[in-house]
Amino acid sequence: NQKYRIEKQTEENELLEQKSKLKQYALERASEEEHEQYRNIVFTLCTGLLFVFLLVREFKARHVLKMRSQKDQLTQLANRGVFFNKGHKYTIAAIANHKKLCALLIDIDNLKIISEKCGQDVAHSIIKQVAKLASETMRSRDILARIGREEFAAILPETSIEEARAMAERIREKVYHNVAKKVDCDLHVTASFGIASIEDVNDNFDSLVDAAGVAMHHA
Predict the structure, then answer these.
(1) CB of 95 within 8 A of CB of 198?
(2) Fewer C-beta within 10 Å: the chain N or C terminus?
(3) Residues 6+ apart with CB under 8 A from 174
(4) How does residue 75 score in pLDDT terms, banded at 50, 70 and 90?
């Protein structure tokens, strides 16, 4: 009986030990599964964040490229394409609503001679200064653009020819009195201006710009 009891106790102990091992194994397995699930969640989150980061970077890159495609790199003004695109829209709206509209062209006089005499850096500095002075004179609704090496153009909505002339005169005086002082070269910087009103042309934006161009060349 004693031997039987010992053997039975031994079997029970072995059974308990096996149950304990099974329980330990189950706990370890559950812990592994939990860790694996946690790793999967972290991996999914990281992948999602990476995707969002790449998406945002792509969006920003496209936005930068779009902005660069619309701006003149030297002056940061609108470029020729933007000027004519908006100009056509403004003209159509002005004619349809019987509103005033003027075009203003600005040409830096003798910039090629200045560049040959004083260097390309000085010429670039003059272009940027003229752009800055013209921008300061513009109103929030006006569109100023650089459409050539030394040529600028502006769309002036709801502006009469007299108001456009006054604006051109303010820019001319600013250029005359300020630009030459900021460059290291013995020269005098001036600019010529041409303005035209949709009331005189009353056709399309190209005709308006051509009329302003003729006036500028006369100047």
Answers:
(1) yes
(2) N
(3) 133, 136, 137
(4) very high
